[in-house]
Design goal:
The chain has 15 helices and 22 strands. It is an alpha/beta fold and about 500 residues long. The protein has a seven-stranded mixed sheet, sandwiched between helices. Strand 12, helix 8 and strand 13 form a beta-alpha-beta unit. The structure holds 1,4-dihydronicotinamide adenine dinucleotide and magnesium ion.
Length: about 500
């Protein structure tokens, strides 16, 4: 008799506490505890994949690859449409589980993240149909440049948005004809288990979609060291990215690395201050455990006081609480270790003489809740100005002209995103000088699947999104057909 697959019950929903490898559920291995930041309760335990199982996942993915690749984009489309449908069918389970596991707002999951996760699969499956071979006509040949499937792609995702990020990578990887092995984050592993349940229900062929759970330095490290991988796509921290890039270099495996930042939020003297202040407060979304948040406020001296008072009035009204309540705007920090990290940044900033505009201490709602915080009066090289906190702690500096705004905006090792408020022509002129992968003018968070996403400097290498994802997840091949009689001559070039 086969052993029953262990499950965790979250509300009415059952999540498989197992790996999904080669179309089968496997629960071997040591276990680790799954923690909920809502009430600091334990949700149960998940297995940690052994080296052998990680290797088996890559072997299975490699075996499944040729048939999946041979289907072509049209052949893969119905599978991926069913996969997207299966995500939508499980929306309530995803919402409850991800809210418990990661502390993400239930309403945001229901209305934003889960529909987007399904779209990540559906959109890239459809976009793959439209991928055109690039044609080049030269004087002696006709070239057509193909996107060939690459092979097995390892996908490593962080805890702040595992479902969104896993589908953002798996969607284009699968649509381009690759098989995938996902290593979900150990602080929020459950959403990816439901994702595997959805893949299974959709009839994705065994081995095409795999999930191995476990910690980064063990399961994750084993996965990225596998020489049979063709791609590694990672979102997470800079130190981990450097470890992965070194390992990948040993095997010459291309990596896409997206690594957070310390993005500028610029308020020019001609900005709409009400909109800028309301958008400023939005940077506390998900307790600022968001790579693309604007966390370094750069405000023109002339409008600083007015901007501060407008933003303060909004921040004072923010509802901090249980992420399952519809009224809640900011939930908990994911884990006690992250909470300590955030608190450490705040205490060191205070000790270094930074002045608090608001916040600066835990929120009384519960043990992992922290007040939205804003520091000012800081040296440009202060830790709080330069390092990513990944918690609800922002910092504000002022400037007197555009050149100074640009200089401060670029005074960081990071270069992920940015926000710039001002008269649109003025804001564009400033934004174009900011060295980041993207920048929003008089807005925030507009993300289209066709648009490139990624960072410069320590914010990462490569771009994903639209055709950029297909470039990364494909092997580009030029097929050359001579248009004039070809002479096999040694003198011929
Ligand atoms: P991390 O970079 O260590 O973890 C991200 C993922 O990488 C997890 O799935 C982890 O298991 C895996 N991983 C860790 N070591 C690995 C290794 N040697 N080989 C393969 N995979 C490995 O991030 P962590 O420790 O969870 O967060 C630390 C800080 O990173 C945060 O405070 C924040 O500043 C930043 N961060 C940035 C994110 C972003 O969206 N860019 C997301 C999460 C964290
Ligand atoms: Mg958790």
């Amino acid at each position: 008799m086969t052993k029953a697959i262990p499950t965790l019950s979250i509300g009415d929903h059952a999540v498989r506490a197992a790996h999904y490898v080669n179309g089968a559920w496997v629960d071997e291995g040591a276990t680790f505890q799954v923690f909920s930041p809502i009430d600091q309760g334990m949700l149960g335990s998940m297995p940690e994949a052994s080296d052998l199982l990680v290797d088996a996942a890559v072997d299975g993915a490699l075996a499944a690859f040729p048939a999946w690749a041979a289907l072509g984009a049209e052949g893969r489309l119905p599978y991926l449409q069913r996969f997207a449908d299966a995500i939508v069918d499980r929306a309530e389970a995803f919402a409850q589980v991800e809210s418990h596991d990661a502390g993400v707002l239930l309403s945001r999951l229901q209305h934003g993240i889960i529909p987007r996760a399904a779209l990540n699969i559906r959109w890239f499956a459809e976009a793959a149909l439209k991928l055109q071979d690039k044609e080049l006509a030269t004087h002696q040949a006709h070239h057509y440049v193909r996107h060939d499937p690459a092979g097995v792609c390892a996908i490593i995702t962080p805890w702040n948005s595992p479902l969104m990020l896993s589908t953002w990578k798996a969607g284009p990887a699968l649509a381009a004809g690759n098989s995938v092995v996902i290593k979900p984050p150990e602080w929020a592993p459950l959403g990816c288990s439901i994702l595997a349940q959805a893949a299974e229900a959709a009839g994705i062929p065994p081995g095409v979609f795999n999930v191995v759970h476990g910690h980064g330095p063990t399961t994750g490290a084993r996965l990225v060291a596998n020489p049979r991988l063709s791609r590694i796509s990672f979102t997470g921290s800079v130190p981990t990215a450097k470890i992965i890039a070194k390992v990948a270099a040993e095997n010459l495996i291309p990596c896409s690395l997206e690594l957070g930042g310390k993005s500028p939020f610029i308020v020019l003297e001609d900005a709409d201050l009400d909109l800028a202040a309301a958008t400023g407060a939005l940077q506390y979304r998900n307790a600022t455990q968001v790579c693309l948040a604007g966390t370094r406020f750069l405000v023109h001296e002339q409008v600083r006081d007015a901007f501060v008072e407008k933003m303060r009035a909004i921040v004072e009204q923010l509802v901090i609480g249980d992420p399952r309540d519809t009224a809640t705007e900011i939930g908990p920090i994911i884990h006690p270790r992250q909470f300590e990290k955030v608190q450490g940044y705040v205490e060191r900033a205070k000790a270094a003489g930074a002045r608090l505009l608001w916040g600066g201490e835990p929120h009384p709602f519960g043990p992992l809740y922290y007040k939205p915080t804003m520091f000012t009066d800081v040296a440009p090289d202060a830790e709080i100005v330069q390092e990513e906190v990944f918690g609800p702690v922002l910092v504000m500096q002022t400037f007197t002209d555009d050149a100074e705004a640009v200089r401060l905006a670029n005074d960081t090792v990071y270069g992920l995103g940015g926000v710039c408020f001002g008269e649109v022509g003025h804001a564009r002129a400033v934004a174009e000088q900011v060295r980041t992968g993207f920048i929003w003018i008089n807005s925030f968070g507009i993300r289209d699947l066709a648009a490139p996403f990624g960072g410069r400097g320590q914010s990462g290498i490569g771009r994903e999104g639209g055709d950029y994802s297909f470039e990364f997840f494909s092997d580009i091949k030029d097929v050359i057909v001579p248009t004039a009689p070809f002479k096999a001559s040694f003198a011929h070039r």
